[in-house]
Amino acid sequence: MDFQQMVIRSIEEDIRQNDQRLELATFGMGCFWGPEARFGSMSGVVRTCVGFTGGTTPTPTYRKMGDHTETVQISFDPRVISYEAILREFWQNHYPNRDNYKGRQYISLVHYHTEQQRKTIENIQKEMEMQLREPIETEIAPVSEFTLAEERHQKYYLKRYPKALEQLAELYPNNALLKDSTFAARLNGFVKGFGTKGSVREDIAQWSIGVAEKERLTDLFLKLKW
Fold this sequence. Notes:
With 226 residues, the protein is an alpha+beta fold.
């Protein structure tokens, strides 16, 4: 096993061991490319992906979405970042009222995965309404089937840098690994303008992987060609 394989195995093993502690959050807040980058830059967010929820059209696609909404789904570690903090990020970074949208593709939507999430949404909504000084019209609904969007939409901003992707191929030889990668989520946020080189390095330093793996990822990050 070469060193690159050791790095990816170490990272994925750490994620697998912590899966039972992770929670899901699902949001619609306009075009899903930007929200995936935004949430992917946040410490405590482990995975991000984009897809479609909320509608009745079978097997939606980007070109044939029907009555579904573009959504981002994240896996996060509540020991590092709270659902409350994620909700504030959601409401502070898009206009949540429906008169700003046509159809359902880009509506403001939050799916709750548990009863506790529903209660938290209600509490944070009241807080945000006081800040906005107007009612929030975000659609709030229990989680529905999440259909993964096509490959080209996952980590959209990172994929605009083919030279960097070539370098990352050593760690992530297929798109499934890239989609589920915490490192790729941070890079997707970084190239969109969320975070700095310093914040990415600080985040890697906190991951539960070996010192050698941290050094390898940090070195690769600093050498990526944008």
